[in-house]
Amino acid sequence: MSSTSVLRHTVNELIETIGEAPQPDGLHVYIQKTPEFIPEIPILYPHRMADPLLFLVLDGEMTLKMNLVEYTIRKNEFLFISPNTIRQFISHCNDSKMACMCFSIDFMLKTGIAKSSLDPSAFISSKQSPHLVLTSEEANTISQLMQLLYERNITPANYPFREERLIHCFGTLMYELAAIHTNQHQKLPLKLTRKEEISASFLNLLTQHFKEQRSLQFYADLLFITPKYLTQTIKDILGKTAGEMIDEMVITEAKVLLHSTSHSIAQVAESLYFSDQFFFSKFFKNQTGLTPTEYRKVS
Questions:
Q1: Where do the HTH araC/xylS-type domain residues begin and end (predicted)?
Q2: Does one domain contain both 159 and 208?
Q3: Same domain, yes or no: 96 and 210
Q4: Nearest to residue 246, comparing CAs of 265, 268, 230, 261?
Q5: Tens of pLDDT along 219-248?
Q6: Which residue has the higher pLDDT, 88 or 191?
Q7: What residues does 61 pair with on adjacent strands?
Q8: Distance CA 184, CA 126 (A)
Q9: Which helix (H) or strand (E) holds 282?
């Protein structure tokens, strides 16, 4: 089954759930003025977007998962979500406030920023941590630039130098974020432990093969270690066994697919390489306590 069958949301679909009209040019900046309920759809279930999504928490905290890894971001902390990452918002406190920005790849290409020899957008796809803890001064700078970018983006189309001012402001924001990211990661130890290397390699392999391969032996063989050592290593580094990580990845993908009501249970089972619908349903219920049909009704 084509990867295009996986449920995805566009920037505009996400924006509509928070009661806002899409902004022009493939760019949307959202500045939350007062605490308010974070909408249920599409935020509270696993989904993908083809575009990057950047968050700055202005107050309170929120928790979300990206490709099974859970992050809690608090005041003056920043998170960037790479394109096509499976994301799921888990919780937020009642007084949480945030500023966020999402933009299309077409918009970024139009700005010319990706053609720079020092492309500041590269940090969006960095394999290093996407979670940044900012100083109060850094957070204030980013917040002000996002506010300015918002104002530039809603300026009438016939305003003099509208596009040039917008592109300049976007570039300044991206360079500021890239500088903070580079500065923080230059200070981190570059040498991973053997167990950290195995864990990183396992997660990379898992995202590539989880649909068709759920055997510990398969991943252990690719890493040239025993299944027992793989299980213990992943448990030590990630807090879950390798088997649990495999099952969680499959279940997360299954939930994404089940939200697409155009797919039957049998089609979902087939896309995840289960031998038939019965075995998929049994696996899903063992993991979630619900049958796929029950999950689809309540989700």
A1: 200-298
A2: no
A3: no
A4: 230
A5: 999 999 999 999 999 988 877 899 998 998
A6: 88
A7: 74
A8: 13
A9: helix 277-288
